[in-house]
Amino acid sequence: MRFVGFVLALCLGLAPMAHAETSKPIPVKVVVLTTFEIGAVTGDQPGEFQPWVEGLPLKETIAVPGLRHPARWSPETGVLGVVTDMRARARESVAALILSRQFDFSKTYWIVAGIAGVDPKAASIGSAAWARYVVDADPIFEVDDREIPGDWPYGLYSLETDKPNVKGSAVGSSGMVWALNWRLVDWAYGLTAGAALPDSPSLAKLRAPYAGEANATKPPFVLKGEALGATRFWHGARRTQWAEDWVKLWTDGAGTFTMTDCEDQGILDVLDLYAKAGKVDFSRILVLRTASNYSRAPVGAPEFPRAFHSEGAMAAFDAAYRVGSIVVRELSTHWDRYEANTPSMTANGGAAK
């Protein structure tokens, strides 16, 4: 009897383990990747993540090994929300998410939704840009600006080169530039171009010093424009000129620098690697960045102190959810339409592969 009891106890003890090993990964329709939250994920001042948790809503919590923050899940809609953390931590978090084996990402759409600095040439604070390209600005040579040759515009240039504005190589470091599925980007833009982005006297006040720069002084709007990722914060007229040149260089003139952030290059590098391994579908990735501040001061104004305003951040948090949630709801609600066919703009505005 003791032996039988022992065997029974052993079997019961192994049962949860066996269930865990045989349970199927959760099929995910859409992943929303945000990079930080200010405090709690509900009920206080919002950061990037809270509008998604409260608005979709994402009611269930799922712990994922390697993620500092629990993921949030909606079984009704099939949407997963994640805080990746910022800068280099985002790369580690996305890799941990894919490797966790808790989820099936084979048909998943990925939407990076975060705030950024914006080039005043491209857009205004509170605006939202769908990226056609993501460009990496981390693998780079940097010379002290006080020591650069007199005919150089700045002291930043590509690896494997000896001067600015020559495309080099970053083999073993980064893919450097990722072209997103332009049909999907166009579809997302077409779906959201008319989204109402709130304006306010506070935002108008932030725009006013940029008088004469047409896009910088518009009320918030939705556009298409490229994301430049660098783990360091930067600001200023020369750095903005470098960013404009760097994006043109690495996209062979096809891209326009619009938003500067700290995570997209790492996220896209990881997603690209796992797409090549068959874990994710790279043609189903979208990057949405919303403007919380300008990347430089108005022409003729001093660059310091660097202008960052809470009003701009709050507008950018709101814009990311307002614009991004339109796409998330369309994909998840009409999964019968988009599970097998990646949407794109067609002549009649429908979805096509």
UniProtKB/TrEMBL annotation:
InterPro entries: Pur_nuclsid_perm (IPR009486). Keywords: Signal. One of its GO terms (biological process) is transmembrane transport. Pfam families: NUP (PF06516). Residues 1-20 form the signal peptide. PANTHER family: PURINE NUCLEOSIDE PERMEASE C285.05-RELATED. This is Purine nucleoside permease.
